[in-house]
């Protein structure tokens, strides 16, 4: 190849974009993977210069299990260097919606698979069809062994970039060399024209450009005609050198250009903004399964080290199901209806594995707690999955059978013998003598505490939350529901004398939405079709733990029920929502106009956060969004509101109004320019009943001071309660296994190492601040002092043998960073 900079170089990338699920189910995608890989192997035999590039470990896993002879052929071609592994992830996922830890597992499981089966790992991140890319990916890619990245969307009309080739940098300072594919990642019968168009783009890529070719989407790959066109044009394109190549070769060739490349510090958005919110069920299942598996791993690790309970061997199988369902056309909500029956089944497998393993771990731990025998006492062990102390709602349902009768009079005591307030609420089972009890539990960091229900009369009286049909009040806040709108007319901070909302809040508003499933051609959903109107507002609960007001509202054929809960000793409002949605071609939002000035909007993104404008454009978020500003015309008070959620990903902020996107109802897999016949009965997304929870966290000062990240995780990873009995045991009635002395350092994962019986701990910094933290591993007899850069993810390898040193490792668990202690 001629020297860079003196000639233009076009690297021809033979590939087959394979959507395993989209306008077809995974079974059809499975067959097409086999057919495409067979075709690629045949082309490699026929054309000695041809090179094939492919990603997604899940496809190779299919081939290995179903067509082992072909798998051996692929091995040989990889060793030869003509079949190139890119994108060391399990699948090409949506790159906004999964959690930060899910992206880590994409690389951990994908790269380890490639290493084990082929002796290679991917060097190039590769998500050519994903609809946008969160700004923390450079750190995750870099620490997963990939220092470059290939993508196509958003296109130039959706996101201006200084060059097709640039350095993409996340907030921790990690960067990868990134390349935006021109025009298409696949071709059909117009390769020569495509190459001429790409040739015109060379000037936007420092005279070095990848041109992707090959039949794609439903697979297929490079054809004989494709290869022969390239061979024909080689040497006939003037000053442009053409070569069969791979992304690996391209990024190696442009390495010397890195000092000249512009740097981009941003998410790569926006393409298909409707995908942040369409198909609520798959998104809720994704959030739930991610968090359930993380909790199962934490408690399985603790039980393994504490009681000798075997660490489950099937957790990676559960992760593989979730990672596959994060494929961009599944999790984004853009596949055909029947594909979501398959996705639901696969989530079910993963959830069942995680739930079973977590139960085994919790029951092993609680059974080893020493609990004294005592008449008329029922112990409850409550586990905290977080690395900080929590005060959280706990619930237990009792009654009906002789050994579980809830006494007429009883108390609940904490581990120190202090009587705590509780209240009896409506039971889930609608039968006589069945009761549900709620109380607030205070739990130590990543540990447990034992509470006891005693059949004795209380000697204490507790203050209650003041509740009427329209008002609730605790020591800090007063909430008022508006009779006309059913929304919050006032949320008043009594301590700071601040009104949080302006012009009403928590009002469900319906938007006209004629866009397709992806939301192609739109940036926002802001054409109001109407508002839900209340049909009933009533007090549901009142007691020393919480008050609840239920608001039931209707719009046309749809109903929404919001249960507003105010806790006596928690400074946040929880709202449980049930929607029965019966509308088509519309979007549902809940609006929250805040009273602050000079506002800053902060969105959680995977393992980080980012600020965005108040322009009304639809944006992705993770567990929370925050708006913080000043309050009053002359006051300089800093005040804000964080909105936390357990399964929603779309939101917009326009002026002072936050609008949480609840659902969208386009036709399944409707892709413009198809124009629906409004008289036809199409299958429409998000019909029927769905539920979710959001929380309002008003706060003085910043969201960092309010510890918004922690509150959102508490909503998504709830305490786990085991009803126990008395027995002997070596464990105390309260214990903590890990603690961290800095509030901005979060333990996100605790698991067995991939290839050893040792322990992996992952932590990350949340506030974009350099931090020195002390991490105490109490069960392991270790204390670490760790230095974190801003928004840094740090992974530690903890040997079982205490005499062996602790290592810092990368995200794919290579011991490369040396001894810590």
Summarize the structure.
By secondary structure, the chain is α+β, with helices and mostly antiparallel strands.
Strand content: 25-35%
Helix content: 10-25%
Largest sheet: 9 strands, antiparallel
Q: What is the second-level CATH architecture of the largest domain?
A: Alpha-Beta Barrel
Structural class: alpha+beta
Count helical runs: 14
Any idea of the CATH topology of the largest domain?
Answer: 7-stranded beta/alpha barrel
Q: What is the H level of CATH, i.e. the homologous superfamily of the largest domain?
A: Glycoside hydrolase 38, N terminal domain
How many β-strands, per DSSP?
46
Structural shape: globular
Radius of gyration (Å): 28 Å
Biggest sheet strand order reads 25-26-27-28-37-34-33-30-31
CATH class of the largest domain, anyone? Alpha Beta
Low-confidence stretches: 1-5
Distance between the termini: 48 Å
Mean pLDDT: 95
Number of domains: 4
Domain Glycoside hydrolase family 38 central: 270-347
GO molecular function, one term: carbohydrate binding
Protein name: Glycoside hydrolase family protein
Pfam families: Alpha-mann_mid, Glyco_hydro38C2, Glyco_hydro_38C, Glyco_hydro_38N
């Amino acid at each position: 190849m001629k020297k860079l900079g003196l000639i233009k170089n076009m690297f021809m990338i033979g590939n087959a974009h394979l959507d395993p699920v989209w306008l077809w189910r995974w079974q059809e995608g499975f067959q097409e993977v086999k057919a495409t890989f067979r075709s690629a192997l045949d082309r490699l035999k026929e054309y000695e210069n041809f090179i094939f590039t492919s990603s997604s470990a899940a496809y190779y896993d299919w081939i290995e299990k179903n067509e082992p002879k072909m798998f051996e052929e692929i091995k040989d071609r990889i060793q030869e260097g003509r079949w190139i592994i890119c994108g060391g992830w399990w699948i090409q996922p949506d790159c906004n919606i999964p959690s930060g830890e899910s992206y880590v597992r994409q690389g951990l499981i994908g790269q380890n698979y490639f290493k084990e089966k082929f002796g290679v790992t991917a060097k190039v991140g590769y998500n050519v069809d994903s609809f946008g890319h969160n700004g923390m990916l450079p750190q995750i890619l870099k620490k997963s062994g990939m220092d470059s990245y290939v993508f196509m969307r958003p296109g130039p009309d959706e996101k201006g970039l200084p060059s097709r080739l640039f350095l993409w940098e996340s907030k921790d300072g990690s960067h990868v060399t990134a390349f935006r594919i021109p025009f298409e990642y696949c071709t059909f019968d117009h390769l020569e024209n495509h190459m001429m168009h790409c040739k015109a783009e060379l000037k936007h890529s420092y005279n070095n450009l990848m041109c992707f070719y090959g039949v794609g989407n439903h697979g297929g790959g490079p054809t004989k005609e494709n290869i022969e066109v390239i061979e024909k044009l080689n040497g006939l394109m003037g000053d442009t050198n053409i070569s069969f190549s791979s992304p690996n070769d391209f990024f190696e060739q442009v390495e010397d250009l890195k000092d000249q490349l512009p740097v981009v510090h941003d998410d790569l958005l926006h393409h298909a903004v409707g995908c942040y919110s369409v198909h609520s069920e798959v998104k809720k299942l994704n959030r739930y399964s991610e968090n359930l598996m993380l909790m199962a791993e934490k408690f399985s690790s603790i039980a393994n080290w504490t009681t000798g309970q075997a660490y489950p061997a099937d957790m990676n199988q559960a992760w593989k199901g979730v990672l596959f369902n994060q494929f961009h056309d599944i999790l984004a909500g853009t596949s055909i209806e029947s594909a979501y029956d398959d996705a639901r089944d696969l989530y079910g497998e993963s959830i069942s594995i995680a739930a079973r393993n977590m139960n085994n771990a919790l029951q092993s731990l609680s059974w080893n707690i020493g609990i004294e025998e005592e008449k008329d006492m029922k112990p409850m062990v409550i586990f905290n999955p977080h690395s900080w102390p929590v005060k959280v709602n706990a619930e237990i349902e009792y009654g009906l059978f002789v050994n579980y009768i809830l006494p007429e009079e009883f108390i609940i005591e904490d581990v120190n013998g202090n009587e705590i307030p509780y209240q009896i609420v409506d039971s889930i089972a609608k039968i006589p003598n069945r009761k549900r009890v709620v109380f607030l539990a205070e739990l130590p960091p990543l540990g447990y505490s034992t509470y006891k229900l005693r059949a004795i009369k209380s000697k204490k009286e507790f203050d209650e939350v003041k509740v009427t049909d329209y008002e609730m009040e605790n020591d800090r806040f007063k909430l008022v529901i508006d009779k006309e709108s059913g929304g919050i007319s006032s949320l008043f901070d009594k301590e700071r004398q601040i009104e949080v909302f302006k012009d009403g809040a928590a009002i469900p508003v319906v938007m006209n939405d004629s866009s397709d499933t992806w939301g192609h051609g739109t940036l926002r959903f802001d054409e109001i079709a109407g508002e839900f109107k209340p049909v009933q507002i009533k007090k549901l609960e009142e007691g020393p733990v919480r008050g609840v007001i239920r608001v039931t509202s209707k719009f046309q054929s749809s109903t929404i029920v919001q249960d507003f809960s105010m806790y006596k000793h928690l400074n946040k409002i929880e709202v449980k929502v049930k929607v029965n949605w019966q509308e088509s071609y519309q979007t549902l939002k809940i609006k929250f106009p805040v009273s602050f000035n000079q506002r800053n909007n902060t969105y959680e993104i995977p393992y980080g956060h980012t600020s965005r404008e108040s322009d009304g454009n639809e944006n992705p978020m993770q567990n929370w969004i925050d708006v913080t500003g000043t309050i009053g015309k002359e006051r300089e008070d800093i005040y804000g509101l964080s909105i936390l959620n357990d399964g929603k990903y779309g939101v917009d902020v326009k002026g002072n109004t936050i609008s949480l996107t609840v659902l969208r109802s386009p036709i399944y897999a409707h892709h413009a320019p198809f124009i629906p016949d409004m008289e036809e009965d199409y299958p429409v997304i998000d019909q029927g009943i769905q539920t979710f929870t959001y929380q309002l966290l008003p706060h003085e000062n910043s969201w960092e001071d309010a510890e918004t990240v922690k509150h959102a995780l508490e909503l998504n990873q709830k305490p786990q309660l085991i009803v126990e009995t008395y027995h002997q045991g070596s464990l105390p009635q309260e214990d903590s296994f890990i603690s961290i002395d800095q509030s901005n350092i979060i333990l996100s994962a605790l698991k067995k190492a991939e290839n050893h019986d040792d322990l992996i701990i992952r932590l990350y910094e949340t506030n974009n601040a350099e931090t020195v933290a002390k991490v105490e591993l109490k069960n392991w007899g270790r204390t670490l002092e760790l230095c974190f850069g801003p928004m840094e993810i740090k992974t530690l390898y903890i040997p079982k043998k205490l005499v062996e040193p602790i290592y810092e490792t990368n995200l794919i668990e290579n011991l490369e960073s040396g001894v810590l202690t």
